[in-house]
Design brief:
α2 runs antiparallel to α4. The longest helix is centred in the first third of the chain and has 28 residues. The chain is elongated, with a radius of gyration of 41 Å. It has a six-stranded antiparallel beta barrel with strand order 1-9-12-11-10-13. Strands 2-8-7-4 form a four-stranded antiparallel β-sheet, with no helix packed on it. The protein has 271 residues and is an alpha+beta fold. It is built from four helices and 13 strands. It is 30% helix and 30% strand.
Length: 271
Amino acid sequence: LTIPLMLLCAACGKEKKASELNETSVETVLPSETNEVTAIPLIRSEFHHELISNGKIEARNQAKLYFESAGAIARIYVKNGESVRKGQKLAELEPFRLKNQLAIATDALEKAKLELQDVLIGQGYMLADSAQVPANILKLAKVQSGYEQALASYELAEYEWKRSVLTAPFDGIVANLTAKAYNQASFCTIIDNSELEASFSILENELPLIQKGDRVEVQPFAVSGLKATGSISEINPLVDDNGMVQVKALVNGSDKLFEGMNVQVSIHRSL
């Protein structure tokens, strides 16, 4: 009994010494320090709430141009990416057929005028005094002489002749020009790059967080580091089946932003 008791006391002594040694090592490795806290005074200021969405760049003014008259393209004066001014000539059709149609229509109209004059003379009136001819008699005389039909044919031929030359409807840039001379085709698209919009969607529960005039930043995925600023110009008052609302923002023009470009839109609003 005495021997086990002595062994037990010896073991307890060793454990006590080991415990004291561990505590001493911890205190040596992790010395006690005073905890410091950094503080700043609170002040009332503006908080910029930010929403982020993906969208596309669109031009506010865009026109798809085509020739209204059938015929082969004679000349093309522009190319893709070229800047054009309002009224500038873009292309023209072969003039022979349209010019010939206008000449035939002009001749037919002159003959119809003579026929109209003969009918009015038969009724006791002169064409020069048509303002004094009763309306019902003048209408009947125009029908009998074929004047109305000849006039309509002339106006159509004149309209097609004038439309044989395609001009720019506003200042812009030529795009989608695939037509070639001596071929029949629709022509091109004119894009006004000075007024671009970013079209994007937001969730319906984010509607209360935005309003017209809020500042936006637009960053194209294809051009790193480029940012353009603008403001929300339109909020479509309709929630689609996916719970999304279409929004448009007018973006300041940039030479590196193009129609259809994919962009990231950040909406900033001061609260």
